[in-house]
Amino acid sequence: MIAAISGTPAALAAKTATTTIPIVFAIGGDPVMPGLVASLNRPGGNVTGVSFYNSPVVTKRLDLARELVPDGSVIALLGNPDNPASVEESKAAEAAAAALGQPLLILNASTVGQIDDAFATCKQQQVRALITSSDPLFFSERVKLVVLMARDALPTIFSEGEQARAGGLISYGASRADAYRQAGSYVGRIVKGEKPADLPVILPTKFDVVVNLKTAKSLRINIPATVLARADEVIE
């Protein structure tokens, strides 16, 4: 039994390694597009799992960022070019921004050092707000991202509630903890005899907005009432 819960690259590596050992993934993107499963309802083969499915909701993060800055301000998106799910989010955000006439700068980082470079570019390009894609690197380095956000007073919309609770400004996305629990449940069911091919991929049913007012006050950022009204959790 293999639990590949560190994103799409890890799940693809596990699938490449074996066609017989059962694999349960937890990823942020579409599992069909990169070939992890044949379909959501009928995965087929030895692989199934849980998707946070962040590509469709990255546009909501863009909407939140636009509410924090004046019209016409440059907004940036931080993505990981080595993660197919993150690339999906960048493309979805680009399409949404183009439709809105919103200036959007795509920044890429696949290492810790490149995160520093991305923030330096934000400063050079006078970016007024930043969106992060859902990616294991950005999740594990959430404290670093929060420190850089605070240093540059750059309003940042994260994808994970844990990032907002770590001091981030706002997050919007599905619960990673819930996805891990669901993946663990599938592991248990497979160990007891069920087959991955018979277990449909689980998608999130709820996406939460978490607002950290404590961070907003420290950055001297006024969170619009329209954003607070949509918040599922407010940290004061």
Please give a structural write-up.
By secondary structure, the chain is an alpha/beta fold. It has 10 helices and 10 strands. It is elongated and about 55 Å long. The N and C termini lie far apart (42 Å). The mean pLDDT is 94.
Biggest sheet, open or closed, and with what strands and sense?
A: 7 strands, mixed
Q: Spans with pLDDT under 50 lasting ≥5 residues? A: none
Compressed to H and E, one letter per element, the order equals EHEEHEHEHEHHEHEHEHHE
Structural class: alpha/beta
Tell me the strand order in the biggest sheet: 5-4-6-7-8-9-10
Q: How many beta strands in the DSSP annotation? A: 10
Strand residue percentage: 15-25%
Average pLDDT works out at: 94
Number of helices: 10
Termini separation (Å)? 42 Å
Helix proportion: 40-55%
Backbone shape: elongated
Provide the gyration radius in Å.
18 Å
Detail the topology: elements first, then pairings.
Elements: E1 2-4, H1 8-17, E2 23-27, E3 47-51, H2 58-68, E4 75-79, H3 84-100, E5 104-108, H4 112-124, E6 129-132, H5 136-140, H6 142-152, E7 156-158, H7 161-165, E8 170-173, H8 176-191, E9 208-212, H9 213-219, H10 225-230, E10 233-235
Parallel strand pairs: 1-2, 2-3, 4-5, 4-6, 6-7, 7-8, 9-10
Antiparallel strand pairs: 8-9
Helix pairs in contact: 4-6
